[in-house]
Structure formats: structure tokens, C-alpha cells
Amino acid sequence: MNPELDLTLQRLIRAPRAAVWSAWTDPARFEKWWLPAPTLCRVDRLEVRPGGALVTRLSDDGTEFVPHLDACFLVVDELERIVFTNAIDSAWRPANPAPVPMTAEITMADHPDGTDYRVVVRHGDPGARAHHEKLGFEEGWGSVTEQLARIAESQGAR
């Protein structure tokens, strides 16, 4: 973690790691939390494996879905860690994504009350980090993490 380049988020999710993992890897569940409500998400590809695609669309009106994210998973350690980047698209081509290129690392660890869920979003330079922060990283990633928690916790708390 480099504070000049990275943004972080941490939250206790009151559900077992398996429930959090399922919310990340099941497309039907992923669509329910990936974008801040009321924006809707549609998953085009969710191949949670190294080299697999993460492609989503979004809709603000529920009828027209436009491209949102075209990314590639780099590391997947079942029930423990997911790393993806939008700097490489789902066809493994270098990308110049808007609004900011990033690599996100999500880790999940057991906690006495559920799952210790941590996010580190890495940027290539301080300007990209500042831009992402200014766009509302804390609010955006925070709200989707809250939505993820509700999905996982509804599956059953410990």
C-alpha cells in the first residue's frame, strides 16, 4: 500500500467469507451490488479466474444499458483474494479506460463476527489517485461495499 498512489476501504461484513465470495462470483448476485443504486448493472462476462473477463454495463433508466467496465482478472485465490485491472481489457489488450486506470485488490479474511473485507485500489501516478478520489471513490466504493454486505448478510450470518 502506497498512500500517494492507492485508495483503500475496509469493512466488516457480518457473513461468512463463502457468502461474500458468492456475491463476487455469481453473476446474478454480482449485478445486485456492483453499481451504486439506483443505477442498474448487467453482467456481460464474469470469469473469476486469472486472465478471465469482467465486463459490465450500466443503466440509469432500466432500459438502455451502456458499457461500464471492461477489465481482466489478474489473481484469484478462492475465498481469499481477487485482483482485477481495467488497464488490460477482457481481450487482454492494453486499455486507456475512463475515468481512471486502476488495479483493485480485494481481500477477505475470517473475523470473529464475519468477514474482514479490504479493498486497495492502485493507480499509476498521484494524479490518477487524486482524480479517482475527487470523483468520489470513498462514496462510490463505499456504497457498493455496503450493498455487497447486505447481499452477503442476507445469505446468512454466522
From TrEMBL:
<comment type="similarity">
    <text>Belongs to the AHA1 family.</text>
</comment>
<dbReference type="InterPro" id="IPR023393">
    <property type="entry name" value="START-like_dom_sf"/>
</dbReference>
<dbReference type="Pfam" id="PF08327">
    <property type="entry name" value="AHSA1"/>
</dbReference>
<dbReference type="InterPro" id="IPR013538">
    <property type="entry name" value="ASHA1/2-like_C"/>
</dbReference>
<protein>
    <submittedName>
        <fullName>Uncharacterized protein YndB with AHSA1/START domain</fullName>
    </submittedName>
</protein>
<feature type="domain" description="Activator of Hsp90 ATPase homologue 1/2-like C-terminal">
    <location>
        <begin position="14"/>
        <end position="152"/>
    </location>
</feature>
